[in-house]
Amino acid sequence: MDVSSKAGSYISTTQRSAQCDSHGAYDSTAILLGTKVMHWSACPHCVRQANMASRARAAQQAVEERQRRLETRLNQAGIPLRFRTKDFASFVADTDDKEKALSVAMEFAHNFSRHRHIGTTMVFSGMPGTGKSHLATAIARHVMGSHTILYTSAMDAVRMIRDTWRRDAPQSETQILQMLAEIDLLILDEVGMQYGSEAEQISLFDIIDKRYRDVMPTMLITNQNRHGLRQFLGDRSFDRLRENSVWQSFNWTSQRGQIMHLSI
């Protein structure tokens, strides 16, 4: 079929049968300039797969770039060095309670897109050395392939806000809160280990409230029980956390203590 003509030449198309090693027979279309073949189309299935792979690579590169910009701007992002090798496979689930904690963590990680959509709050509560940070790190490592994460202590998050109060601060409090709100998964470790001053409560409430309003998932790691966390955070922040939340207790003895005991 002619689609244009100029100076005695014209552009048209023609078809022929072709064979793809992966997908079998298909109709290949050629663009003709006069009688000269300019291009034969490739297997449509291969083209579709290549386009999907290209879009996936572009999406992953975009997320990685967002993570790099985040770490550059905050300079406190990322998983603590001690926990960077932790994953789900290395978590020793040798009791029913530990198996349940592992299952809850894996469900959150593997279905993070859904939790991201509904803004789930995850709370890991238990004594030091029970594996809370281990599973939080495993979640972070799984999620950060396709989403941005910030793993930081609650005190460091408060300091980010406090640092904006200086006259020479490069960023405003509003800008920091907005950045903390835009992270796909914010993990706050050591919640409840601070002084619990009114200023800290206000700063943490601002962070939690901003993410609550923007329907963004947040993870809190704490040594406190429900009553202790409510007292530390205050009623307003705690009420935000209770809505659409998962509370996972790590109610067993410290694994660090067991390892030390075995080595003595």
TrEMBL record:
Coiled coil: none annotated. Keywords: ATP-binding, Nucleotide-binding. Signal peptide: none annotated. InterPro entries: AAA+_ATPase, IstB_ATP-bd, P-loop_NTPase. Pfam families: IstB_IS21. GO terms for molecular function: ATP binding. The keyword Nucleotide-binding applies. Residues 118-244 form the AAA+ ATPase domain. This is ATP-binding protein.
